[in-house]
Amino acid sequence: MSTIVILAYALIIVGIIVWVVLIPGRRHVSPKALDYITVFGGAFLFASCFINLVPHMFLGDDPHRFVTPGFHFKIAAAVMLGFLIQLLLEQLTKGAEHGHNHCPCCEEEHEAEEHHHDHHPHAGHCHNASIHPITGLIIGLSIHAILEGMPMIDLDGDIHQGLLYGIVLHNIPIALVLVGLFMHNGYGFWKSLLLLSIFAVMTPLGSLCNLYLMPDNEVLQSLLMGVVVGILLHVSVSILFDHDHNNFSWAKFALILVAFIAAYFTPGCPEIYPMF
Q1: Residues 6 or more apart from 76 whose CB is under 8 A from it?
Q2: Long-range contact list for 107-110, CB < 8 A, 24+ apart?
Q3: Which of 264, 260, 276, 274 is nearest to 40 (CA)?
Q4: pLDDT given at position 130
Q5: 148 CB contacts (<8 Å, ≥6 apart)?
Q6: Does residue 77 form part of some domain?
Q7: pLDDT tens figures, 7-18
Q8: pLDDT, tens digit, for every residue of 204-233?
Q9: Under DSSP, is residue 262 helix (H, G, I), strand (E, B) or coil?
């Protein structure tokens, strides 16, 4: 395996695990800073889908390839399938992909903490679901990470840099949410590190599964990219619209604009968008 691919995997894994080292001892990361990171990552993913990923899944490595109407339909179906898959996964993750924790019990505890009420880590006991919320969260996020990592590296070893950088940015708020939930549930450092490490290796695992287990079929790879585009569009649109529309922020607007520009200049499909 080439050095550049190994470095890409290391960037994803280290970029996630580092947060379990930085966060303990600090109860909160600034909500405003987390919000800005999440918005920038969501905007970058959204732009990367249309600038880099969509052209590639239609044209592959040949910018002059003739695409039939039937292939258009298959791609559209794959995108919609990815959208629906993410919708189902969020029943487990409770929106952690958006940089938020929508678990009702944890939200109540967080509100109590903000108002200086007495509280104790609930260790999941206040949840009535048959699956522990952390277990469901790790399962849902792991499936999400495996799927979005599968088309990150082409079968010829080329990396989709737009997708790689989007995943890295996207994983920052997810890691912060996970660490926060581990702390709320009273998990120790090593248990938190283990769980975060499991999530961290899932994207490279998905990529390796695609490289070594999936057939070397360009149409199949395009359909797989379509599923991932559907997943990323669901996540990015949810991030960009998950705020109060009555409070317009020029700072967030500027972040979104910068993210769009950054996505445009991120190498992704040089054969389609030659820079020079």
Answers
A1: 226
A2: 109/184, 110/184
A3: 260
A4: 42
A5: 163, 167, 203, 206, 228, 231, 232
A6: no
A7: 889 989 988 888
A8: 999 999 988 888 888 888 899 999 999 999
A9: helix
> Per-residue pLDDT tens for 70-116?
788 889 999 999 999 999 988 887 777 766 655 555 544 444 444 44
Domain-located, residue 74: no
- Residue 125 and residue 141: Cα distance in Å, rounded? 22
Report CA-CA distances (Å) from 232 to 48, 76, 108, 262.
10, 14, 29, 17
Q: How far is residue 136 from each of residues 23, 92, 126, 174, 213, measured CA to CA in Å?
A: 22, 5, 15, 14, 26
Q: Does residue 40 sit within a domain?
A: yes
Residue carrying structure tokens 């849902």: 140
Measured N-to-C along each axis, helices 218-241 and 161-184 cross at an angle, to the nearest 10 degrees, of 50
Q: Does residue 151 contact residue 224 with C-beta atoms inside 8 Å?
A: yes
> What is the domain extent for residue 14?
3-62+83-264
**How many domains is the chain built from?**
1
DSSP secondary structure letter of residue 51? I
Query: Cα separation of 207 and 150, whole Å?
Result: 4
Answer yes or no: is 10 within a domain: yes
Six-digit token string for 158 = 């080329």
Question: Contact at 8 Å (CB) between 184 and 205?
Answer: no
